[in-house]
Predict the structure.
Amino acid sequence: MRRSTLLILAGVLTMVAEACTPFFPVPPPPPPAPPAPIAADQRCSDGTSISSKVVALDVKYNPEVDGTSPPQSIGLSSYGSWIQKAFNLATQDLRDRLCALDKIYIAEANTDHAVWGIREKRNRTRHIGISKELLDKIIGTWTSPYAQYEMEIVDNLLWRSENPEPDWLRHLTYKVVGDSPSIAVLAILAHEIGHTMWWHRGVMNLKCDGVFFANLTWDRINIPPGFHHFGDKQRNKSIEDFDIDDMANLLSAGSLNALISNMHQVYEDGNWANLFSFVAPDEDFIETYKFQVLQDAGVSKIDLEFPGTSGAPDTINVLTNFASASSGSPLGKKKAWIASWLQGACKDPNGNPAHP
Ligand SMILES: [Zn+2]
């Protein structure tokens, strides 16, 4: 939450006029089309409204230590309509999973955890939490809410110090076509539901086409149960010869050329959806799922820009790279793995069909 420069996306539409003269009289213009009907809010398959699950949490709740006892709500939250707007844009799969949640909490008190997704081991209930502070930025302050949310993620992954962030990071920006507050909320819901389904469905133990998800881009896998901190790389080792901590160290040391080279490798070599997916196998699964949800919701471009080695801006077409990953690339295989799982084509450890 340190960013000082705000990016404003400007869309310029150029009208190109046809210059030749028609041979025939131009017919009168057709009558104006009737206004498009306003789409009705989507509902859960049992007819209930998702906003009926969105409740306010006024006390400080720490999901890290209180994760085994569900937080107590103080009644419906006024932010339910924002969750509903994001829900309207969600894939059917994501809607079904959101509808299966126990609650979506809006944390009124400031907390160290801006968002969380929890599946309780004891009774298997799942809940998601989003801080009101973050929602207020998305709805009211940020001009490009999803782009700014993604910038915050990269900022926090690469710069862990309280000191002012370096110039290079301050000039890193996202440019998103199709951005809106609803898209930013949708991205949060897709990510946090991913954490709940990873544990609820035991995704790390499933095989699609005989392969575990984590085997596709992780060399050494250690997925400890329990609360997973933001940016916590655990003891997993990816197929790259560097990790997120090495990249953060390069930034601290001012070794920008090496960092820029790593950024290109992560985003452009067909191994990862983005930097967040490079942190741990569950975040990898989740961010890959999230990008598929965002694409389906109409996000058509996610570009990342930062100063390149010459100082001139480097642009990475993050979503284009994601969408065009070849089927033989590790990222293409991860997308296909998730698609197979969603179609019920994967197997549990006993060799039975795994429930998506
Ligand atoms: Zn996460």
